[in-house]
Design brief:
alpha+beta, Thiol Ester Dehydrase, Chain A, 11-stranded antiparallel β-sheet, 6 helices, about 15% helix
C-alpha cells in the first residue's frame, strides 16, 4: 500500500509527554544556545546560576507536542529515507514550564498530492494537567515518490491558520535585522539526543538512500536556531513574549554551516523572516513570528 488516506481527520489516542529541566537544557545546547554569548543565554543553558532562573526556549514547544509512548499510527508503506520535514508551526497558549506533563492528541489533517511526492500535514495539541491547552503544533512532511494518489483534507478549526496559509511576500527593503549563527560540525549528533534519532542525520549510508551526500541537520534544529534569533531580537530574550512561529524548510542544512536569519518587522506583534546559509541559499522560507 502507499499512504493511508483513511487516517485524515481521525484523532489518535491521547498519549503522554513529560520533560524536566535537564531535557530543556539539552535541547537548548542542541540548537546552539550559549555558543555565541554564553552570558545572554544562561537562563536556557544553566539551572544554578545565581540570580538567574531557568527558562525554556519557545521552540521546545514542538518537542512538548510530540507524544512519547502509546501506539503509533503508520502513515503507509514507504521508504522512511524518502521522508523529509517540510514545514513547522506552533502556538504557545502560555509559556512553557521548566518541568511539564501533558497529554498529546494528534491528527493527520492533509495528504496532498504534489506530483513527485506527497505532503502530509499533522496537528498536535498538548494539554496540561489543568485540562487547558499548552501548545498547538502543526507540521508537514514531504514523502518523495508518493504522489499520484490524489489529495485528502480534513475540515479546519483552531486559533491559527494552517501552515503556510498566512499571506507572505518578501519585503523589498533590506532586513531590519540579520542575525548570524554558526552550527557545529557535530550539531546533528548533539541535537538527536533530544529524541529525534532519525538516521538521516547520523548514518551516511541511510542519508545516501535519501539522495544526500552526507547526513544533514535536523530541520527542527535549524528551526531552533532561527527561534533563538527571533526570541532575542523581537522579545528581548523573554519567552513569555513569544507566541507563535511558522517556517517552511526549503533546502537541507549541513552540520557546520553558517546560518543567517533575516528579519523584517511587519507591524505590531508580527515579523517576517527567512533563514539562509552563508552563500545566500534560503533554507527556511515564508517565516512568520508573532510576539508581544
Amino acid at each position: 500500500m502507499a499512504l493511508d488516506h483513511a487516517l485524515v481527520g481521525v484523532p489518535g489516542e491521547p498519549a503522554g509527554r513529560t520533560w524536566d529541566g535537564t531535557d530543556a537544557l539539552l535541547y537548548a545546547l542542541g540548537v546552539g544556545a550559549g555558543a555565541e554569548d554564553p552570558r545572554q543565554e544562561l537562563a536556557f543553558t544553566t539551572e544554578n546560576t545565581g540570580g538567574v532562573g531557568q527558562r525554556v526556549l519557545p521552540t521546545f514547544a514542538v518537542l512538548a507536542a510530540q507524544a512519547r509512548g502509546g501506539p503509533r499510527r503508520k502513515l503507509g508503506d514507504f521508504d522512511p529515507a524518502r521522508l523529509v520535514h517540510a514545514e513547522q508551526s506552533f502556538r504557545l497558549h502560555r509559556p512553557l514550564p521548566v518541568q511539564g506533563s501533558v497529554s498529546v492528541t494528534s491528527m493527520v489533517t492533509d495528504m496532498l498530492d504534489k506530483g513527485r511526492g506527497a505532503l502530509v500535514r499533522t496537528e498536535s495539541v498538548a494539554t496540561g494537567e489543568d485540562g487547558q491547552p499548552l501548545v498547538t503544533a502543526r507540521s508537514g512532511a514531504f514523502i518523495m515518490g508518493e504522489g499520484g494518489a490524489g489529495s485528502t483534507s480534513a475540515e479546519r478549526s483552531g486559533d491559527q491558520p494552517s501552515p503556510g496559509e498566512e499571506p507572505w511576500t518578501r519585503p523589498e527593503r533590506e532586513p531590519d535585522h540579520s542575525i548570524v549563527y554558526r552550527t557545529r560540525p557535530d550539531q546533528a549528533l548533539l541535537y538527536r539526543l533530544s529524541g529525534d534519532r532519525n538516521p538521516l542525520h547520523s548514518d551516511p549510508a541511510f542519508a545516501a538512500r535519501g539522495g544526500f551526500e552526507r547526513p544533514i541537520l535536523h530541520g527542527l534544529c535549524t528551526y531552533g536556531f532561527t527561534g533563538r534569533a527571533l526570541l532575542h531580537t523581537l522579545c528581548g530574550s523573554d519567552p513569555a513574549r513569544f507566541h507563535a512561529m511558522y517556517g517552511r524548510f526549503t533546502r537541507p542544512v549541513l552540520p557546520g554551516d553558517v546560518l543567517v536569519v533575516d528579519l523584517w518587522r511587519d507591524g505590531a506583534g508580527r515579523a517576517l523572516f527567512q533563514t539562509r546559509t552563508e552563500d545566500g541559499t534560503v533554507v527556511v522560507d515564508r517565516g512568520v513570528a508573532h510576539h508581544s
